């Protein structure tokens, strides 16, 4: 992989490894003394730009790695391992450039660390490998050579070797992305702004009429993604709704994981998309597991509505909310959920009524039953 950028480095590297092997000492202290004696740190000098330095580092890492993998002399192999470690932490770009390793090469490195010298373990080698791994020194790849139209670094026009400026690592970008998702981050602020915009849009739309949900049908609690069963259920629900002059306007789901209350993790999103094809302003409600309690004070629902060919957050309003929440709390406390039948129960036994007629009375009547 040597080019004009790293011309001559291979010869210097082989000479350095040969001189170290003559000392017959496998410890890192001896390596450091040889590094200082030969002034090997000067190999970093003479690079005019950060871009050239980054390309140069990639090539010398590759050269030293190949020396390590092909050396038969155990002292030269130990020295090449020490050299790879020292070059990585001494690089002027402050650990920006990484050492590319394939799966096979990583296995060879681990096997070497177990028995580096006369079939015995060297604590220094083990500690160095652990430090390099924890410091994210390796980039695990499919091919040992980088392929593509452009290099992975951002080219700089300056002469400085300060990698903290124009050169940004993947880890830095990951930190910025994580910061965007925090409660005070930009994404959360944009979601709040989007909800406010949608509310204003609803108020300005004088001809728009909000959907009033008057009934729900529980479908599945086991096979949440089985299309044939969902199609059969939807046909029967649609037939029932049409008899009452109603239509299916949405879909509600509850995530299996207690903390998965996000729209993206909710099962059955495709069913909601299918409903949206027939209902322009269809909605989907995701049950907020953390808000469900035996003393309900606000709706445990997170709503999205289909607008402009996408799902956007919407507001959920409960009519006669205080009485409704008190009634729901009483029903939960008295175990009324055991009397609820969904379409899964109906498929197991057709005597189980998925219409749940006994829950369709007024609140006082329902409460008197439990």
From TrEMBL:
InterPro entries found in the cross-reference section: EMC8/9 (IPR005366), SNAPC1 (IPR019188)
Gene Ontology cellular-component annotations: EMC complex
Organism: Anopheles stephensi (Indo-Pakistan malaria mosquito)
Name recorded for this polypeptide: Uncharacterized protein
């Amino acid at each position: 992989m040597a080019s004009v950028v790293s011309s001559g480095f291979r010869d210097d590297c082989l000479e350095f490894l040969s001189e170290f092997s003559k000392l017959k000492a496998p410890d890192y202290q001896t390596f450091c003394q040889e590094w200082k004696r030969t002034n090997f740190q000067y190999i970093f000098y003479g690079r005019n730009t950060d871009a050239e330095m980054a390309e140069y580092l990639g090539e010398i890492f590759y050269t030293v790695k190949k020396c390590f993998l092909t050396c038969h002399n155990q002292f030269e192999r130990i020295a090449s391992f020490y050299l790879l470690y020292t070059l990585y932490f001494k690089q002027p770009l402050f650990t920006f450039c990484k050492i590319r390793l394939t799966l096979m090469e990583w296995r060879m490195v681990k096997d070497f660390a177990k028995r580096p010298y006369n079939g015995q373990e060297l604590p220094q080698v083990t500690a160095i490998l652990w430090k390099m791994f924890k410091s994210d020194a390796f980039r695990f790849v499919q091919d040992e050579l980088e392929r593509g139209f452009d290099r992975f670094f951002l080219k700089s026009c300056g002469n400085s070797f300060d990698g903290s400026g124009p050169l940004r690592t993947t880890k830095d970008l990951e930190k910025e992305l994580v910061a965007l998702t925090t409660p005070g981050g930009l994404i959360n602020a944009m979601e709040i702004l989007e909800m406010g915009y949608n509310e204003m849009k609803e108020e300005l739309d004088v001809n728009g009429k909000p959907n009033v949900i008057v009934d729900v049908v529980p479908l599945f609690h086991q096979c949440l993604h089985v299309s044939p069963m969902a199609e059969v259920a939807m046909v029967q629900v649609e037939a029932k709704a049409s008899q009452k002059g109603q239509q299916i306007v949405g879909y509600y789901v509850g995530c299996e994981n207690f903390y998965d209350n996000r729209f993206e993790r909710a099962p059955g999103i495709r069913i909601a998309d299918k409903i949206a094809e027939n209902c322009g302003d269809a909605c989907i409600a995701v049950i907020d597991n953390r808000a469900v309690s035996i003393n309900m004070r606000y709706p445990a629902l997170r709503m999205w509505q289909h607008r402009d060919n996408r799902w956007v957050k919407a507001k959920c309003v409960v009519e006669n909310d205080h009485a409704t929440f008190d009634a729901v709390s009483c029903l939960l406390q008295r175990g009324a959920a055991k009397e609820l039948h969904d379409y899964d129960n109906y498929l197991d036994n057709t005597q189980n009524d998925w219409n749940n007629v006994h829950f369709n009375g007024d609140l006082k009547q329902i409460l008197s039953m439990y």
